[in-house]
Queue: 4 jobs
Job 1
Amino acid sequence: MITKMDKYSFILLSDETAAFLGKLQELGVVDIMRSKKPVDAESSSMLEKATAIKKVISILEKTDSDAGTDEMKEAAADAAMPEDTVQGVLATVSEIETLKARLAAVEKEAEERRPWGEFNPADIRKLEDCGLTVRWYKVPEKKFQESWASTHALQVVEDDGSHVWFVTVSGADDEYPAIDGETEAPQGSWKESMTEAGRLKREIARAKGMMLRFKERIPVLREEYRKEISGLDLYLAGATGELAADDMLTVFTGFAPHEEGGRLCSEFDRMDVAYFKEEAAEDDNPPIKLRNNRFARLFEVLTGMYGMPVYSEFDPTPILGPFFLLFFAMCMGDAGYGILLIIIGMLLKKTKGGMARLGPLVTTLGTGCIFVGIILGTFFGINLVEASWVPGWLKKCMISGEIAGYSSQMVLAIAIGIFHICLAMTVKAVCYTKRFGFKANISTWAWLLLIIGGLVIAGLALPGIISGPAAKWTVIALGIVSGLGIYIFNTPGRNPLINVGAGLWDTYNMATGLLGDVLSYIRLYALGLAGGMLGGAFNDLAMMLKDGIPVPGLDWLGFTVIVLLGHALNLAMSCLGAFVHPLRLTFVEYFKNSGYEGRGTPYNPLTKTIC
């Protein structure tokens, strides 16, 4: 099946692309495409606005609602909220940062003023007005001298065991011996600083409360961001003009599996990159990643050889796999060669590089050859039906003899071809109806009804399960209904005469095409028969050489050489034919009748891992 994809649109300045691609490479799941678009005033403004919205959403998402105290909520309850959320959030964030910086400075100032205690700066100024000079000191306690009190008018204000804070008062004309440790006078009291700190904390609480209220607008911001990015994407798609190479935006379009969406969005949000996510549609031509079970996955390489399906198409691998295995085994037609292929596949698995990946496929093909080879009755060119050493119960499982004068194995190949083509037509009818609607595929369903219905009626009438008259009238009814769909309603709303002409042309193509397609499946019988006969010829030649050499030992040597070389050559030619012709039956007969296009692009994510 085809993995569901999400489409991501990224818009960056060209000088930011290298770092962005490096991060995408680390993620390893985004298949990226890019193109450059000219920047003009309009697109620059749109990008700037989208980036600002994205930044605000990121800020609000990091705002912890649970950390909001009742004080914050009450402080912001009556605050006027700006209509422009983006500018309001950015202004509030700036205000909070400014208030926090001011609070830190005030708290530091309060810590410096704390030892001086409470005082009135006005009283200090009165002393200075009287001609007295007040000096302020802070010295380590071990340097403080009690004798200073006898030479200065000194008052100790604080002693915390580490430092001593004191002041001195002297007249303007007094001789004043200098003391080391003089500091600047505090500009205010400790209480004033604490009052200011309290006010700043209340302001911060109010601003944080506003951020909590802004957070409620995140859904609206996300919708606004989506509209801005969508509008920018649309604008750039039609942008024209010739500008300098430096004035360029790089627009990336990336695709990633839907199941990776949660992880990728989290990463992109952390990058603060402008992006837009939506479900990929067929018109986006997303890359194709196939997702199949272990068996079908072996044959995805064959699907890739023809071409990946488009996004709305179906993955042909689950049907291609078992039929290719069957066709390959029938073309090989030898159980002994199947054993050799299993051995080759096991050896390939032990190698390194691309050949190791073919090991499981070769082993699977070899297993199919063993079972089909036994049913067809060939083992290293030996006809098992005629071999006396083969148990009778096993011979009953083999297909031999004739049906209506034709080889049973040839009839089997034709029957498989008919079934394969009918399956292809059924797949086409179902998938085309899903893609384009029933009305556009009435003719497809009509042909399907006529062909498969006719085959079913014939299969029931020949052994007498239904009577001849019943079969006759059923076929007539099928013909009438199918004829109306093929010749009259093949394109509803068009001129009936044109529909009839189109139906006749379609009939000619069907009659000639289907017959040739069915006969192509005879190659399954012919290649298997040729390989078995050639293997038997090498066996006969080896026996003739053995019987013709009278020297003991030398006769068996000649026998062994002929058998080994002959079957090695036959195995190589059979493998080539068994690979090419089933591919042709699949790529031509099946894909043509199933309507498979194969125009998709393989999923190739940007990654650091080199396979």
Note: Residues 438-520 form one domain.
Job 2
Amino acid sequence: MKSAETTTGRYNEAFNESINDPASFWGRAAEEVAWKKPYDRVLDDSNPPFYKWFPGGELNTCYNALDVHIEKGFGDRTAVIYDSPVTDTIKKFSYSELRDRVAKVAGMLKALGVVKGGRVIIYMPMIPEALIGMLACARLGAIHSVVFGGFAPKELAVRIEDAKPTVILSASCGIEVKRVLQYKPLLDQAIDLSSHKPDKCVIFQRPQAKAELKPGRDLDWEELEKAAAPADCVWVKATDPLYILYTSGTTGVPKGVVRDNGGHAVALKWSMKYLYGINPGDVYWAASDVGWVVGHSYIVYGPLLTGATTIMYEGKPVGTPDPGAFWRVISQHKVKALFTAPTAFRAIKREDAKGEYFKKYDISSFQTLFLAGERTDPDTYFWASDLLKVPVIDHWWQTETGWAICANFRNLELFPIKAGSASMPVPGYDVKILDSATGKEMGANEQGIVAIKLPLPPGNLPTLWQNDQKFQESYTTAYPGHYFTGDGGYKDEDGYVYIMGRVDDVINVAGHRLSTGAMEEVVAQHPDVAECAVIGAEDQLKGQVPIAFFVTKAGVNRGAEEISNELVQMVRNQIGPLACFKSAVCVPRLPKTRSGKILRATMRKIADSQTYNTPATIEDPTALDVIKEAAQKIGYAK
């Protein structure tokens, strides 16, 4: 097995140059981007931890995503495929058609007073207008802040308060699997709660529900766009913000992750080619939402900067209409690579464990499955790998980084895949495993804090929106000279990185520090378990003890108690008696965010009888009641 240190391949060459001579590495990558004015230098490292990439350079991200391809003669190439099983709609936009609509919407925003550096909040469902609105802001040099459509009014209000938008773009409704969710009442309530009031709200009326417009403030999107004069690109500095994206689950003053224009364009274009193996004209699908960082990076900007075709999917992995939904999209649109969350594949596996729906479709175009969002458990990896017969790549990154920290590479060097590992550090990321107490680097197979030596590569957050102090407190103070990821993990003897979950997922059982992620791995191996979460609950005697909550696969008829006993024995055999693993509870569903992350921190508070807030990102609030009831049955959540 090769390691990052011993391989003589392209990866080793690229990685070493990116760490030892970042100016050379990223300067060459920057040649792929169209600059209005060349940058003065690649990296300004004079004021750590506030690093600047490509200072002095000027560009426009929308120009690089649309106009540049049209000027090269590719205006007729398909830019976006909108696929909406919930409305039975498929619509395609060429690069020329998309540019023309974006220019009109940019003109619409300009007429409403949106200027370079001004903010626009986008509160929309997965429809083309959300993507168009983002690109229109970029065209004007304005800063967009996308808030997941349907977010609770209180959380939306906090974001309005912090970003202070001139204009809010929204739609009349979003469409869930079995219901229409009206957005306008939520938006109105959020504006009432916020001390900052936008000048105008532009509402895209969908036929499924018409919104009542408030005279003087609310305007009809289609009418306004139709009357608008197209706007040209406004050139901005490479270091100017492109967008603000608020981290999910924030309380009080939220953390607004800032993304700059220059570093973002360079990094995403590099990643599309070398990490995802996507070339101009290829069809790429990130099955996420524009409200998340994945949607920003790999539904909107990454594919379009590359000149590829991106898919915007308004649907679910199951239920719209069945567990074959993903295979239908891949087959119909000739998708080359899919990027989604492990939870999507767990949902498909639960409904169609034998892959009967998969057999109905020709997916010969398909070359790679990329998983991220939370750790891919080995059971899900093996199931997907056996079914698809293509590389299944687990890669790890964060809202703050904007693109992958650790990954495998379709167009650099494809390493042998190890189940449970996010593979190797991506060029630009000097990943270290540090002792939590001393900050010293750990050896192979020793668990510690996962940190990244500064500077972070292009595309990462330069700071938080109007809060340099919070940026330092959150990310750079704990381990000076390093970015604190908040995750724990280790590197093995070959240099592969294993992310075991958030640092607060490491529990202390009678003095033994144990990873709940490792226990989840064991529980997920059980043939009847579709998905699971292991949390640490407070215990007077041992400090903490682990509890597993698990969901069985569809069609499993065995008794839950029998399965529970088997899980206890499996953990005892594979982790050891010191884990004190004695409780495994069967539940019908787990509480998750809309992006598929299991809400373990909230589950832990429920088990410990602590007060908790229902996270704004939750998909189904009733799932928390399910956990509370299950925890009470075994003596917790009193």
Note: Residues 510-633 form a domain with the GMP Synthetase; Chain A, domain 3 fold (CATH 3.30.300.30).
Job 3
Amino acid sequence: MKKIIFKILSLICVAILLCASATGCVEQNNPKPNLPKPDISKLDTPEVILGQYGKVVWGEVGSALYYIYVVDDGEETPIFEQSVQLSLGQSFKVKAVSNSAEYDDSDFSEPLTYTGGGIAGDHTHTDINSDGLCDRGEESIILGLSIYAVNDLHGKFMDTDTQPGVDEFTTYLKDLYADAEREEIILSSGDMWQGTVESSSNKGQLMTEWMNDVGFASMTLGNHEFDWGPAALTANSELADFPLLAINVTYQGEAVDYCKPSTIVEKGGVKIGIIGAIGDCLSSISGEFSDGLSFATGSRLTSLVKNEADRLRNEEECDFIVYSIHDGGDSFSYSGINSVKNSDMSYYDTELSDGYVDLVFEAHTHRRYILQDEYGVYHMQASSENRYVSCANVSFNTVTGEYSVAPKLIGSNTYANGGIADDPIVDELFKKYFPDSNPYDVIGYNKSLRNSEAIVSKVAELYYQRGLEVWGEEYDNIVLGGGYLNARNPDNVYSGDVTYADLYSVLPFDNAIVLGRIKGSDLVKFLNRQFADKNRYHIYSTLDQADVNLNSYYYIIVDTYTSSYRSNNITEVARLDGEIYARDLLADFIRGGGWA
């Protein structure tokens, strides 16, 4: 409204001045001497294009207040817009009127005459008046692009009583690709494989095949992609039809061969560069696989991303840069689009938003948010485990390069509901990887709900008991079982029938069970961890701390995540044969009626 009022007042002022000049009513009582006029520049002459069916447009001229055009040999007509419709045979010219004493009005443009018809043959699109339409053909030059991002799926492939699988989600995504109105890209920000029997038992390959079928453009590596070591990463990178991304991963100082810094996707003539990185989460990976591994963080990571963004824009001529990082905020909750300060985003260097990246997808913290940083760049994370998916609708002017982003989070009630048919690929892949057995078959009965504390406390006891069975005759000084133990979503074993898949979800880690040797002084510290870190350390012990001889050596039953943690000072002596993990001990216990 203010803009319209300003235009009206400006036109009135122009009319008054023209009238005053014509009638001689400007006061002449105190004529000024004829001083020499200072040298001043003219405004640029408007660049004019005659479009389809007689529409003429021109580009904005800097420091212009408005424009004056002439049709044929008619009157000079002021206008604030930058387009005029001509009739057949009419000619047209326009000039820019200065808004400052520093500039003279421009010259009139060269006359153009509309001789009829449309635009014949191919032509190069232009949009000098930035209205989103080609100046000559008047067709839209706006690309509608939807970018979807999945984070922290953790192998949630099959439907369960508490968790939607990906069968309906697959149908939803494929239906989006069939929409001719928009272009789509789907990518992942990490932690896709580990977490369920259907994915973890084949070290992520089932999920990778599913992502191939859906058409993922890329997948950023998360910390749990490293849970099985480099061999599994290499195998998945060779199986994937899309690149695994992580710009900041090195092994013994050298770049690894199972991931790359970035990838480029082209949609509707627009080149989108996608850069991937993993956050400061190396400590969450078992020392068995993290020795020699390094994730560049802080200023080192910023420098890597800046250089790659520059390369993508200047050498690869990318128009839009997406940053997919397996890291994120831990204190944000969703309540619309939130603006944040630098101090709230310690995990992210906002320098990257100053012209280097245009959109950021985040992960790792399992939070749900849409943030807008001080540079106006959106950051999105969509919870975890198939509850939500991030979506950024980008409107991109393919001529001017200007764009706008409209972010949203889509809930599973939209893409995983009974109104959407299951895609057959989900059942096909499940049967491919489980041809002779079904991990969803019942293995026993649980009388009452067992929460996380009950689960890991029982595991610590089972560690000790299995250790005694295997090594008790040879080592008579085995005093405890347990260590760093953690149950995952759904965090409970519910009452009723129990399947192996249920136990796999709460105890997904493939940490081998070992016999460890520890000095008494370190054993005291180890025992104290169950009090200092009671939410993580769970120990079943037959030895009172007061009876520990600080200079003697003892044997304990732990897993490789605990034994490889250097501060524990545990020396591995032996390891259980075969792939036997915490969930397997608990499965044997339940099969034997332990919780019935």
Note: Residues 1-20+39-140 form a domain with the Immunoglobulin-like fold (CATH 2.60.40.10).
Job 4
Amino acid sequence: MIKFLKFVPVQLTFFLMLGILVGKFYNFQPTQLAVVVGFLLLLLGFQYFRAKKLFEPSVVFTILVFLISFFVGISSITYKNQLNKKLHYTNSSEFVANKPLTALLEIQKVLKPTIYFNKYEATVLQLNNNYTIGKILVAVVRDSIENQLEVGNNLVVKTEFMSINKPQNPYGFNYKKHLQNQQIHHQIHLEKSMVLKLQDKRNTLKGVASKFRESINTSLINNGFKDDELAVINALLLGQRNTISSELLESYSGAGAVHILAVSGLHIGIILLLLLFVFKPFYYFKNGKLIATFFIILLLWVYAIIAGLSASVVRAVSMFTALTIGMQLVQRSSVYNTLVISMFFLLLFNPFYLFEVGFQLSYLAVFSIVWIQPKLYDLWKPNYWLPDKIWQLFTVSIAAQLGVLPLSLFYFHQFPGLFFLSNLVIIPFLGMILTAGIIIIILAILDILPQFLGDFYSGIIQLMNRFVEWISNQEYFIIQNISFSLMTMIAIYTFIFITIKWIEKKVFYRFVFVLLSIICIQSIFVFEKHKLQATNELIVFNQSKKSIIGNRVGANLVISSADSLTQSNYAIKPYLIGTGIGGDLQTIKSKNVYKFKNEIILIVDSLGIYEYKTIKPTIIVLQQSPKINLERLLKVIQPKLLIADGSNYKSYVGLWERTCLKNKTPFYSTMQKGAYILK
């Protein structure tokens, strides 16, 4: 591992990632970056010829290389950010947010639909007849267009470009940030009257791939595949998860096998092994290894195109392209080095990958398998073939889980206790399932698929789904709602790394570092518990058609609402997990008056009662659309803040906002700005 860290591409990749992080959170001018990088390159050239002339290594040369890698990282994310380009629709003089605009769109990707909307990712080709670039999220009311839109469709729309909202409640999933990492900054909602569908040219690479997938699906449907079986085949082999039901997806997640439903490193690795086997005879001919490598890489990328060139597929194919070149053409190439080189070029191509959960999990899992699995496997050497294979699979699963567990807990807050069982049963057969699936698809397209073979394969998929559902139903083994902070995650990874290093070489100073890492973890737990106990706040949560107020004192949270609520309520659950409060939810009926520190909060609900002689409210919360004379209320009470929660009619909220503006009273709408937190 130490030798690996001394490998130059590892060091360059580290500084590249550092530059990407700096460029993500700080704005730089592209022209200034070009000048800086150009100047550093000139210095590097000068230093290179000087060191060559003196016949001695130069520390300055090394520092310059690392500086260039750092500024290349900043430059890559700055230039890749479409907001910095003049042609981006937001930089057009025609663009005005939240006002009707005429735009020409091209559908790039079909996303998973919701109950009310079909969702798509599209490119803005024109804005009010001006050529533009930039991606946008499109939501179309279901059944408002006769046929669902497809990749390659061109649409003329007239609608408002709306900003994507931040989380409406504390610790909620930041969908806005998630889309920004994919360079999507606005969304539009469409109905039939807003859309003019142009003649479909479908001449793009993604359009052709989409059409090919459609023909595959048509062939499979004609051969009797339907519902969950068809959805799983689409996910396993074609990289399309948008047709999988939420229930089935939740089952795979609970069983710790959701990675099986995404075309990723596991699938591409199996396909690579299959291709290596197919092209093995080429090795006996002159230059056969080179020819075989070329065709293997070509077929991997053809498969990536068919699978829609999604980020996970591109990452996996790029990773295994590098591994293929390393295995086939480079003598004794280190897997570590090959992986790092693939990471370097992927981040150079798209620096936004660094902020995607899939990218982080993929590389952590692969590095963990390569580094940790051999050490776990050496703990026991079975004498027989079957126990040996089971032990190999078990150690691979444990190594991968060790690598991704802290990150998974940080993002997803749950741990599937039976992950090893589901992986131990499914993964050994996954290669056969994928191989058989490819054969089934080819036979279905050629319309020569025997009925018994199609039924048999459908039965195998059904059996896998039922097994996963059974695993996920063992709820006792699924630990949910785990509060896991960024500091805790970093500390746990540090502990894992140092412990593995100590296992490699059991020397005293490494053992001391293990103990220090344990003390560090304990210190973080103590600090976070103190922070939990020391925090007091009152929260007006935002939820449509409901009024929820939380009064938190340390680790105790009391929720008051007119409705019955549980811990799984989508407004409250992220707050309980994010703060680490946990425990049973304490609920009480809504009150009319709250006291918090020096503030007196008056609740005015549908009854419209607000005249109290014994109190002087400083904050007023309007709930359930009370029919009141707001101007009179403001004159009588003179509050320093008026809050309208999510239970009110939007028309009322707009009227109240204008009244507050007229009377110079600060106004806060949770529907517009999210939950209000009073500390």
Note: Residues 147 and 475 are 40 Å apart (CA to CA).
